[in-house]
């Protein structure tokens, strides 16, 4: 009767293991390629975010360059960062918007992490809601940060997300296992956008949010997969 030695069993086991690894690698590469194709079809911005209006009512914005690789650090696909100044009331606010068509690849960047890493101390965080110019109710988290080094230096930050066309203040909605799995090709939309509006003046941050968020939201696909950007532009003019 044919008999394999212990040495033969050893090499046979290694050959089987290597073949299994090669097969798994091929399957993963095919799945990843198919995943990217599906995501590119069902989720995308209608217009690059650099096209977001620099003039909104009395607000006029200028792009901010911080010499920091935002796309690489956050895992986002597109973003804009601007300082808007209101010529009517002399208020100013920073507006930061990032878009990610691949939530499973998104890196966690929340104000309580990013601002504290930059030397700010979080003094307060509370859930609030504000009403936009068109009457939309937006849930968000309002933060107050202070720097102990410079007495009296503080900044207010409003932070929320657009998850598949729906505003939410809860990052946990897209950080679970569901968002790490492969995309369902039948889904119309699958993306997450982060919006941060900040200012040293709380009233300025809230005022900017109320006036700009309708247009920001309409820049992205709604829950039915449609984009209302053209309508937003018309309302802004």
Compact description:
This protein is 31% helix and 28% strand.
Largest sheet: 9 strands, antiparallel
Helix content range: 25-40%
Give average pLDDT, whole number.
78
Parts with pLDDT < 50 across at least 5 consecutive residues: none
Overall form: globular
N-to-C series of helices and strands:
HEEHEEHEEEEEHH
Total E-strand runs = 9
Distance between the termini: 89 Å
Counted by DSSP, the helix tally is: 5
Query: How much strand?
Result: 25-35%
Count of structural domains: 2
Radius of gyration: 23 Å
**Computed structural class:** alpha+beta
Word description of this protein:
- The chain is of the alpha+beta class and 237 residues long.
- The chain folds into 2 domains: 1-43; 49-231, no CATH class.
- Helix content is 31%, strand content 28%.
- The chain has 5 helices and 9 strands.
- It has helices at 6-42, 70-74, 111-117, 202-218, 229-236; strands spanning 55-56, 59-63, 78-86, 92-100, 121-131, 137-146, 154-163, 166-168, 192-199.
- Strands 1, 2, 3, 4, 5, 6, 7, 8 and 9 form a 9-stranded antiparallel β-sheet that branches.
- A hairpin with a 5-residue loop joins strand 5 (121-131) and strand 6.
- The protein is globular, with a radius of gyration of 23 Å.
- The model has no long low-confidence stretch (mean pLDDT 78).
């Amino acid at each position: 009767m044919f008999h394999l030695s212990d040495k033969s069993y050893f090499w046979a086991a290694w050959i089987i293991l290597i073949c299994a690894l090669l097969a798994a690698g091929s399957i993963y590469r095919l799945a990843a390629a198919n995943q990217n194709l599906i995501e590119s079809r069902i989720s995308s911005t209608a217009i690059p975010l650099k096209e977001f209006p620099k003039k909104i009512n009395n607000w006029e914005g200028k792009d901010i360059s911080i010499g920091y690789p935002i796309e690489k650090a956050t895992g986002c696909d597109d973003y804009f960062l601007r300082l808007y100044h209101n010529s009517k009331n002399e208020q100013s606010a920073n507006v930061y918007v990032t878009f990610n068509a691949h939530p499973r690849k998104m890196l966690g960047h929340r104000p309580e992490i990013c601002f504290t890493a930059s030397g700010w101390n979080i003094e307060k965080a509370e859930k609030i809601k504000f009403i936009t110019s068109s009457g939309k109710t937006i849930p968000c988290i309002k933060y107050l940060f202070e720097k102990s080094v410079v007495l009296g230096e503080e900044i207010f930050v409003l932070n929320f997300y657009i998850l598949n066309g729906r505003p939410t203040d809860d990052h946990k909605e897209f950080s679970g296992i569901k968002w790490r799995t492969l995309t369902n090709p039948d889904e119309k939309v699958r993306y997450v956008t982060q919006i941060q509006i900040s200012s040293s003046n709380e009233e300025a941050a809230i005022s900017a949010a109320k006036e700009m968020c309708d247009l920001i939201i309409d820049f992205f696909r709604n829950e039915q997969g449609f984009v209302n950007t053209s309508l937003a532009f018309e309302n802004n003019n």
